[in-house]
Amino acid sequence: MPDVLLISDERMLEHRPGAAHPERPERLEAILADLDARPIAGTRRESASPAAREAIERVHRLGHVQAMEAIRGRGAFLDQDTVASEGSIPAAYLAAGAAIRAAEHTLDGGGPAFALGRPPGHHAERRHAMGFCLFNNVAIAAAQALERSDVERVLIVDWDVHHGNGTQHIFEDRDDVLFFSAHQGDFYPGTGLVEERGRGRGEGFTVNAPLRSGAGDDELRAAFLGRLIPAAQSFGPDLVLVSAGFDAHVDDPLAGLRATSQGFATLTRMVRDLAVEECDGRLALVLEGGYDTIALAKSVRACIEELVC
Length: 309
Ligand SMILES: [Zn+2]
Hints:
This protein is an alpha/beta fold. Helix content is 38%, strand content 16%. It has nine helices and ten strands. It has an eight-stranded parallel β-sheet, with helices on both faces. Strand 6 (154-158), helix 6 and strand 7 form a beta-alpha-beta unit. The radius of gyration is 17 Å and the shape is globular. The chain starts with a strand and ends with a helix. Zinc ion (ZN) is lined by residues 160-162, 245, 247, 288-289.
């Protein structure tokens, strides 16, 4: 069994949206400090490289990329809760680059990978930043993977507590990306209804499983068993990507689900088994949200421990 590749970079700590902002450098610091203090056997660490601009432009409109370039080194308020600081644009390129590297690594037969990056990505739309996200890291990795001759179909599983609106919208008219999201319903960003199933050729290739506030591990597992697994099996992915947010954790301050770190381990085992069954275990996780630093580090560890065994 090859080592699980963990990709991160301390330069991503230089994205500083402000002391009161939930998406703060301490999130990634907590994860890396935990992995430093108690390294997990069977893992290998690697630094990130920035994504090529061409890779970003496969997903985002030129106007958005130019707008991000225009604030490089100085920062800006991008929407009511999305803030860029001096170091944010390099960090965003690194977060996208980490996601790309994770996907390429597993596609090359290297085993599972986890891109531990920030800023997160799944709210970023084709034309604009949104919801703490500057570039849509998982979408950029999926689009780059689809350039390869050995990849025709990519499954994206999003278990962040918020609906992955950006990822859904970027791929909703395509039949080569199946997007599945389990999230808290009636919550930010307001999309992710069951009725949103994709458009045109993409009809049926978006699967949303909104959960009630207070739902936890059992409901998440049931959504995976009842909605994700059957859809994924009939889709037949060549690669499985996960938008792995940990803000559905019971201790998370932003949301109202009650998942546990062991629950995230169970979800990881389910997607790992799915990837083994469908595509020789080609699986890459990409960090999204998770705002209680202790719960975040513990949940990331629990997921990695599932990947190494
Ligand atoms: Zn989230």
